[in-house]
Amino acid sequence: MARRPIQKINSRAKGAAGEREFAQVLKEYGLEARRGQQFSGSKDSPDVVCSGLTGVHFEVKRVQKGSPYDWLEQAKNDAGGSLPIVAWRRNNHNWVGILDLADLLHLLIIREGTLL
Q: How many CA atoms lie within 13 A of 7 on its CB side?
């Protein structure tokens, strides 16, 4: 039996599809969202732009394996003062958000209306 050739997955196309998928998730929450890279073309532009969440830099990863710490570092380097968040989804899993604990606690404190 002849082996089928392994098809290379175009990582750029898969990344773009993941960005569109994540933008759609934000839209399902009633937020305006679109891919960022195709509009600005800058390497520092967020993967997804969400006009309803200003001051947030989304780095989108749609891969099975990887290094969340490296992804978060990339988001921090590209965020330019915005809140860096990595949105990640594996096949057959829900989207998760990755951010520094200090940022998460800050958001939770704001949500509760409590000031330190």
A: 2
Residues making up the chain, counted from first to last: 116
Rounded Cα distance between 40 and 111, Å, is: 32
Kindly state the tokens that stand for 50. 């969400």
φ, ψ of residue 72 in degrees (nearest 5):
-65, -40
Domains and CATH numbers, the chain: 11-112 (3.40.1350.10)
Q: HEC string of 21-64?
A: HHHHHHHHCCCCEEECHHHHCCCCCCCEEECCCCCEEEEEECCC
Pairing of strands 33-35, 48-50: antiparallel
Q: Which residues pair with 49 in a beta bridge?
A: 34
Q: What is this structure's pTM?
A: 0.81
Residue 9 has pLDDT above 70, yes or no: no
For 72-116, the pLDDT digits (tens) are 999 999 999 999 999 999 999 999 999 999 999 999 999 888 655
At position 70, the amino acid (one-letter code) is: D
